[in-house]
Design a protein that fits this description.
Elements lengths: L78 E2 L6 E2 L23 H6 L64 E2 L6 E2 L35 E4 L5 E3 L5 E5 L11 E2 L13 E8 L2 E6 L6 E3 L2 E2 L6 E3 L4 E4 L2 E6 L3
Parallel strand pairs: 7-8
Antiparallel strand pairs: 1-2, 3-4, 5-6, 5-15, 7-9, 9-10, 10-13, 11-12, 11-14, 14-15
Length: 331
């Protein structure tokens, strides 16, 4: 603290200056004590208006939306190639993009209910009925024997002739293997080596420069020409000159093309199979062999066993299902 008289610095708590004696602090003034103030009584709280409780809200779960049916994928308009996936026109045997063989169309199965609702035809007891009295196969008015089992229909006892013995001279030949195939250079389809043009695109398969020169075959003895004569129309169907003739019904979907097609001559209505029977020439002799047909092959009222050839003679009658033929050697 500084003295206001002489300017001497003194202790902060000094009352008088230690140099000049000047009073540095005023005398303390007595102050009357203030009476204690009683605290005021707390005011009563004002009543608070209670708001009405809100009504409980009931939540209703929304209705589940109806399921939407998945769109049905449209069926392909053609046949899909299993190799490259290209869509081909129905009926094609090979893929137009990669040449891969296509699956043959499957025949539609008949409903089981329809088959069960059709009652079986009763077996006929005489020639005037509609079924063979021996095997039950359907027969036509005017038939003299059953085309399925060879039973004679003129008499009530249905006499059946003895089966024709197989030809001892020649052994049955195995089924011919499929010929080797080549690829068309234009469209890639599988073609036969003997074809001059592609059956799918028409491209030439053999050029004049690459075609081999024909080789003269040695002279062979000329065998008498043979043919099949349709009994109903008299149309002549000559046999193949290479010694083997397949008779049946043409089917482009399964790529079956027999040497003699009986489709224009009632083959489909008469129950002719695609590969019904085979006639084979051995020198001047001919044999016939059933190829596992559905409605059988009958030679002179005797049904042939599949895979067992029998000898043919001039003028013998052959039945492929209901189609009647006559074998003529032309000698």
């Amino acid at each position: 603290m500084k003295c206001p008289n002489c300017g001497n610095e003194t202790q902060p708590d000094a009352i008088f200056c230690d140099q000049c004696g000047t009073r540095l602090q005023a005398a303390p003034v007595e102050v009357e004590p203030t009476p204690p103030v009683e605290p005021a009584a707390p005011a009563a709280p004002e009543p608070v208006a209670l708001e009405p409780e809100p009504a409980p809200v009931i939540k209703v779960a929304p209705a589940a939306p109806e399921p939407i049916a998945a769109p049905v994928a449209p069926e392909p308009a053609g046949v899909e190639c299993p190799a490259c996936g290209a869509i081909n026109t129905p009926g094609e045997a090979f893929c137009s993009e990669c040449g891969n063989p296509l699956d043959a169309p499957k025949p539609a199965a008949e409903p089981a209910a329809l088959a069960a609702s059709v009652p079986p035809a009763p077996a006929a007891a005489s020639v005037s009925g509609a079924n063979c009295p021996v095997c039950g196969a359907a027969i036509q008015p005017g038939d003299t024997f059953c085309f399925a089992c060879g039973a004679a229909l003129e008499t009530s006892d249905a006499e059946v002739r003895e089966p024709v013995s197989p030809a001892p001279a020649t052994a049955p030949r195995p089924a011919p293997q499929s010929a080797a195939t080549n690829e068309c250079p234009a469209c890639g389809a599988q073609v036969s080596p003997a074809d001059a043009f592609c059956e799918f695109c028409g491209a030439a398969l053999v050029t004049p420069e690459s075609a081999p020169a024909p080789v003269a075959a040695p002279a062979a003895p000329v065998a008498p020409s043979a043919k099949l004569l349709l009994s109903d129309s008299g149309i002549e169907l000559p046999l193949s000159s290479d010694g083997e003739t397949i008779v049946g019904r043409e089917d482009p979907y399964t790529n079956v093309y027999p040497d003699i097609d009986l489709t224009p001559h009632g083959g489909e209505e008469g129950g002719v199979s695609r590969r019904h029977f085979r006639i084979q020439r051995e020198g001047a002799a001919y044999t016939i062999e059933d190829l596992g047909s559905t409605n059988y092959t009958v030679v002179d009222r005797t049904r042939l066993e599949p895979g067992k050839p029998v000898t043919l003679t001039d003028g013998v009658e052959i039945r492929a299902g209901r189609v009647k033929l006559t074998f003529k050697t032309g000698a």
